[in-house]
Amino acid sequence: MDLGLMWAEAYKSIVNYIPELLWKLFLVAVIILASIIITRIGRSIIARLIQRQKGFKFYGDGKRLDTLSTILGSLLIYTVYFVAAVTILTNVLNLFDINTVLTAAGIGGIALGFGAQSLVRDIISGFFILAENQFAVGDVVDIGGMVGTVEEMELRVTRIRNYNGELYIIPNGEIKVVTNHTRGNRLAVVDTRIPYEIDIEKANEVVDKACKLLEQESEVLAEAPQVIGVTELRETYYVVRATAKTLGAEHWGVEREFRKKIIACFEEENIKLGVAFPVGDDA
């Protein structure tokens, strides 16, 4: 065949294919745009429906509903994008036959069992965390030494932010032991170092005064603060402990306020003492 004729045929084929190519690219762009719009609208609808259910007590607490909202939103994104990808590959670009895709999905299922175990484990663990209500969005948790507030819980990962603003992204399959600081009441514990020249009864009396002030002013106490008494003897001072049971994760804030009141009460009595410190401080 003449080389010039071959180039002419090739050029003709390319020119004839350009409209079809442009049409396919247009369809791909439409499908991608539609997927983005569907996921955004879908997540908005899910958020609104969940928000409505918060008014009904039998649907569970608000934090768990917030967690469910993020899980459903994540599931929606995965589903819509998967359908969009299959549609583009099979119906638009004609790269695969739908039967081939289904067969590949079956083979992919086997491959997942070997090559993507961590992904499957993360997703399954996420469902179990939600079903068992181990923690929810807004809870203060300790996961493997990472302490912070749960911001989001998705199918594969959980995001928590600590008090310094650092964001931890933890695969759900890596979550083994969780300490939930929000569930149930917590105990605020404050130890005060008292010099030996100060009478023990006087020290207990002043700390008890601080307990009463805290009870009057705090709105997050589950039980009235109380003086436990002397818990430790050191060379130059003894330690008087006071406790207060608080709601949820409010114990840290209560401990700080408790120390301020103890110091103020001793200053009113013109008594100089050591620094009030939390349990475990050996300074």
Structure in words:
54% of the residues lie in helices and 19% in strands. It is an alpha+beta fold. A hairpin with a 5-residue loop joins strand 3 and strand 4. It starts with a helix and ends in a 5-residue tail after the last strand. Strands 4-3-2-1-5 form a 5-stranded antiparallel β-sheet. Strands 7-8-6-9 form a 4-stranded antiparallel β-sheet. The chain is built from 6 helices and 9 strands, in the order ααααββββββαββαβ. Residues 275-283 have low confidence and may be disordered.
List the helices and strands and how they pair.
Blueprint: H1 3-53, H2 62-92, H3 98-115, H4 117-132, E1 140-143, E2 146-153, E3 157-161, E4 167-171, E5 178-180, E6 186-195, H5 200-217, E7 226-233, E8 237-246, H6 251-268, E9 277-278
Antiparallel strand pairs: 1-2, 1-5, 2-3, 3-4, 6-8, 6-9, 7-8
Helix pairs in contact: 1-2, 3-4, 5-6
Brief overview, please?
Helices cover 54% and strands 19% of the residues.
Biggest β-sheet: strands ordered side by side in the sheet: 4-3-2-1-5
Structural class: alpha+beta
Spell out the helices and strands N to C: HHHHEEEEEEHEEHE
Number of strands: 9
State the major sheet: 5 strands, antiparallel
Features:
54% helix, 9 strands, five-stranded antiparallel beta sheet, 6 helices, 283 residues, disordered C terminus, alpha+beta, single chain
